[in-house]
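Hi R.,

Here's the chain you asked about this morning:
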Amino acid sequence: MVLTRPELTGSFGMVATTHWLASASGMSVLERGGNAFDAAVAAGFVMQIVEPHLSGPGGDLSAVLWSADDRGPSVVCGQGVSPAAASIPYFQSLGLDLVPGSGPLAATVPGAFGAWTLLLERWGTWELGDVLSYALDYAENGFPVLPGTSAAIEAVAGLFTGDWHPSAEVWLDDGAAPRAGSFWTMRAAARTYRRLLSECTGVSREQRIASGRRAFYSGFVAEAVDRFARKAWRDTTGRAHAGLLTGQDLAGWEPTIEPPTVAGFADRYQVLKTPPWGQGPVLGQQLMMVEAAGLLEADVRSAEWVHLVVEAAKLAFADREAWYGDPAVTDVPLTALLSTSYASARAGSITGRASRELRPGSPDGRHPVLAALPDPSPDDLAYAAIGEPTVRRTGAAPGDTCHVDVVDRWGNLVSVTPSGGWLQSSPVIPDLGFPLGTRAQMFYLQPGLPNSLRP
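And the predicted structure, written out as tokens:
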């Protein structure tokens, strides 16, 4: 291992993202008097445009923050729920044992816009139009195409030309993917955001932001999503399926502000993560396990140190598979999972040899049950636009996620992971200029699991 990034310090503010244009936009906000939350929202909207294979307007996000005014932490949940019509029996009636990895059948309520605007409304100081101005400039006037974006489009170009024609109109030039470094625009998405801004009304800044959010979830965006979802599109199964998402699903959802999950480490740190509707608590579990296993006494980056980190990660992610889910609908034993006694017991199962087994634990004496995942069919592999995590990756379509961290001079800190709504996830909605996300692929179609699909 070679550390190539220096430790940076400062007194004014700092922005770190996965794209230089997003970082520059966020830093511009700080330099113009905005706070960390204004800057994060501006950077997040820019990433939707300049990293469209990693996040999009139809995606979702989770945010962990510290507010200097509140003197405390919060989590913003921008993970939209499954459609009201989504059920295991319905998917089984289609002959499916997995939620497809792409296409409208895997869509949940797109939560990113709601969460970004709630973050801005609750903790920011700028108007929505001001933070959106950076993204709109790149969408309308052009941005350089990343190598990863070009590769993602190239990998699914055949799908675009053969089946997803609205995506071909947005992302292909005479049937070819844009070259890395060439300039591209997303004018249809820009028109959607311009229209949303035109519907921001109210006396106060907060009212104007909230009205823009209503236009998305109860107005023309929801109507366009409803119309689009009625049409069937080819997905990772190799067959065409219509979606289940409706305008009413969007109107009935709101982003939430929640307390974070907290784990202690080394008697010095509190690690703040999302509740177990996301995989955030995995890191807290892992840190508690490696501490119990003696990591703090091992030489950093020694073979022993690496072994403990890797083996604890395996155990923590096994617990994720067996126990994590939406705590609003399933009983997640989070207190037990993050207890020192449980961490010590789990650390005791780490031996000197690498384990090749998925070994969830038994918090509170409960018996773990894991999903029985089938192997994908040949059609799955042939048509996989992106298959994460329940459809095996083919290596054909790169996809991941992006991130933004901001700290300002007043002591505000925010860490956001936007994802989903990838250009390779689902066909572009012609009226909006962007695709829906496919977060429902994270559900299992096996009843009785913490993460089983529920309407």
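DSSP finds 17 helices and 14 strands in the chain.

Let me know if you need anything else.
M.
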